Amino acid sequence: MSAILGNGKAESVKGRSPADIYAVVDNVRLHRLRPTHDEQYPVPVVLVPSLLSKWYVFDLHQARTMAGFLRDHQYDVWVVDWGKPRKRRPTPGFENYVDDYLAAAIDDITGAVGLDRVSILGYSLGGVISTMFTALYPERVTNLITLTTPIDFHRTGATATWARYFPVNPLVDFWGNVPGWWFRFAFMTAGIPRLPSLIKALVGDIGTKEERQVAKAVRRWINDGVPVAGEMYRTLVRDCYKHNMLIRNTLHVGGRVVTLSDIDSALLTITAKEDHLCPPGAAEALNRAVSSFDETSIEVPGGHLGAVIGPKAHHLLWTRIADWLEPRSGHHPSDWYGEGTA
Q1: Chain segment 65-111, per-residue pLDDT in tens
Q2: What pLDDT is attached to residue 168?
C-alpha cells in the first residue's frame, strides 16, 4: 500500500512542539517535529504510541515533551498518530497496524531522509507493534526501544489472570471497535485506590502558571480517548494475554509467524519499577528472545504512565534514551562536514 508523500502541513498547537503533518493511509498520520538545530543525527527516531490513547503523550506541553527533548538533542523526531480506527468490518487487526500502517509510515520517513533504516521507540501497546514490525522487517530497523512494553504476557500479573476469563469475542462482535470510554471506565475503576497518588505522580506541583498548564494538558490527554480496533484487541486478549503466543513465537501476523529471534537490531528495553500493567519481567523477556548482540535493559522509577510523562521523566528517562541513541544514530551532528554515513 503506497503512502502519500510531500503533503506536509504545518501544525502549531498552543503548548506543543511545532510540527509538519504527513498523511499516511486511512486515518494514520505522521508528525515531524521542526528542528531547533541546523544539523541532526542521520538516523531518524520514530515514536510509536499505544493504541489506547492519543499520540501526544509524547508531546503534552512544551514543559513536558519527550519528543521535544529528543528534537532539542538534535534527533530527527517523527511521531506516529494512529488516528481513529476505521468503522467498517472487519475492523483493523495487528496485520493492518504492522504491515500497512507502520510499514507505510516507515516508507515515508526513509524516503524523506534518504536512508533505509530508522530507530523506533514504541510505548506500551505501540511497543508490541514496533516489536512485531522489527521481527518481520529487521532490515528496516537500526535501533529498537521498547518502553513499558509487555512481551511475556503471562508475567503481567492480574491483567493476565483477568484475560483468561474476559469474554473478548462477544465484546468485539457487538461493538466492532471497542469504545474509548470503556477503557477509561475499566482503568479508573481498577485504579481508584491509587488515584490521588497517580495524579500527583503525573502532574507534580501546580504552584506556577506553567505547572497549572501542564496539569491541564495531562487531564486533557487522559480524557481524550479513542476507540480501539476490535480485531486487534481480540488478538491481543486471546493470543497474547491468554495464550502468550508472542513470546512463544507462534503468533501469526499477515500470514507470517512473528519470530522474535529475527530481531538483530540494537535493543533497549525500558521498564518502570511501579508498573502494574507491565511488570519488569514481562518486558525484559524480549532481551532473552532476540538475537541482538547489542541489547540493554534499564529500569526507571514510576508507573506505566508516570515514568513517561511525570515531572521527573526528563532526567530519569528522556536523558537516558538520548544518551543510548547517541552512539547508535550515525555521526554526531558536530562532526558534520557535508554528506555523512549512517
Answers
A1: 999 999 999 999 999 999 999 888 889 999 999 999 999 999 999 99
A2: 93
In angstroms, the CA 266 to CA 271 distance is 17
Q: Assign 192 a pLDDT band (cuts: 50, 70, 90).
A: very low
Residue 3 belongs to a domain:
no
pTM for the whole thing? 0.90
326 assigned to some structural domain: yes
Q: Total domain count for the chain?
A: 1
DSSP code string of 93-113: -HHIIIIIIIHHHHHHHHHHH
Does residue 48 fall inside a structural domain? yes
Domain around 198: 9-334
Whether residue 17 lies inside any domain: the answer is yes
Residues 6 or more apart whose Cβ sits within 8 Å of residue 60: 15, 16, 214, 217, 218, 221, 309
Helix (H, G, I), strand (E, B) or coil at 257: strand
Per-residue pLDDT, 323: 97
| Domain containing residue 36: CATH number | 3.40.50.1820
Are the C-beta atoms of 42 and 115 separated by less than 8 Å?
A: yes
Secondary structure class of 310 (helix, strand, coil): coil
